[in-house]
Structures are given as C-alpha cells and as structure tokens.
Amino acid sequence: MDSDRRSERGFFGEQPLRPLEKQAPSREKPHYLGHRDRLRERFATAGHEALPDYELLELLLFRLIPRADTKPVAKALLARFGTLAQVLGAPEHLLREVKGVGPAVALDLKVIAAAAQRMLRSEIKGRQTLSSWMQVIDYCRAAMAFEEREQFRILFLDKKNALIADEVQQTGTVDHTPVYPREVVRRALELSATAIILVHNHPSGDPTPSRADIEMTREIIEAGKRLGIVVHDHIIIGKNGHASMKGLQLI
Fold it and tell me: The pTM is what?
C-alpha cells in the first residue's frame, strides 16, 4: 500500500508543469468597416445618384475620420445645416460645433468645398457666359449662397462675353455691402472688360432685390455706359434660390 502511494507521488512529481494557455482575444472587426465596404461598392456600381445626401457625406467622412462610425456625424451635420451643399458652404467655426467634427475635419470639408467651387468656375472660364447661364448660377450659388456676410462679386467679360476674371470687390455686414460705381468701372477698364455681371448674396436667404440694390445697379449701368461697359445683369443669390434683375425687368 505504501509502495503504491510512493509510486503515485513519483508519477505526479515527474510531470513537468505546463503554463496555462492564454485564450486568444477576440479580433472582430468594428461593425462600421463592413458598412463602409458596402457603401463604397454601391457608389462604384450605381453612382452617386443612388445615394442620399447623408450617405454621400459619409463617403467623404470615411477618409477624414478613419476609425469611427461616420453615419451619426453625417446625419448630425445635415440636421444642423439642412443639405449637403449647406454643409460644405457652412463656416468652419460652425462645422466644429457639431459633435464628432474637430478642427481638422472642418478644414478638410472646406477644402472639398473649395475644390467644388474651382470645378464649377472652370466650367465657365473662357466660355460665353450668356450661353452657359445655369452654370454661372451654379457657380455663384456654390461660392456665395451660404456666406454669413454680404459679398459683392463681379464677373468681368471680354467682347465675346467670355469670363476673363471673377473678383469679390467688397464684403459687408449681414445686410449691407458698400459698393462704389466708379470703382466697379475702373476695375473693368483695368481688365479690358467690355461687359460685367454683378452678383451679390443675401445672407437672410431671400434673394428679392431691395430698393437700394436696384438704385445702385442703375448707377453702375449709367457709369458704365459712358465708357462702353455693358452691365448684362445683377444676380442676387439666396440660400433657397436666386433673382435676376434683368429677368424681373428692373434694369
């Protein structure tokens, strides 16, 4: 009996101790990675028309926010500003107020907006603006519709009505921009422009021309006539549309 016990102790004593095996940690991918792949595939196969605004905005945010679910951020941006165009047109400091949007993301969104504006401007640069009128309107809306202060922009045209320059001459307050007809005409002469299109925005959103807008436009028309410079139109840009003074028969 004693010998059996000694043998038993000897058997267990001879066995080497084995370290406990560590269980491999779970390496499940974050749920949003599969969603990103599916969304990219839909864009690649069906194009942007198949995606609502929030999903197209998500695609933009994938690169800007690489390690997070961007759907809540995209929806929060649209809830705050309304449309994709308004998100890209929003001032940088207001973008940063949205949860999930830091300074780097806000800046990158403004870079995307600037690239979109350049693309639209390239569509009208050197072309006859009067035959590409809706492209002119699209460019002006992208550039000015969501500015918080009034801007007075001038499109300078050559004798073939092709765009030779596009300048913001004045920036004012939320409801007023000082405009000096002599300065408008002087700049047109410097650029050898023979015609101009005046453009300014109403941050209130309502593009209806004011009495001051109409009077100022007529003063520029009269000043330009003396020097052979034609004012084709004065376009007022609002968040929800635009107004053409020529179309309204105000000039």
Answer: 0.68
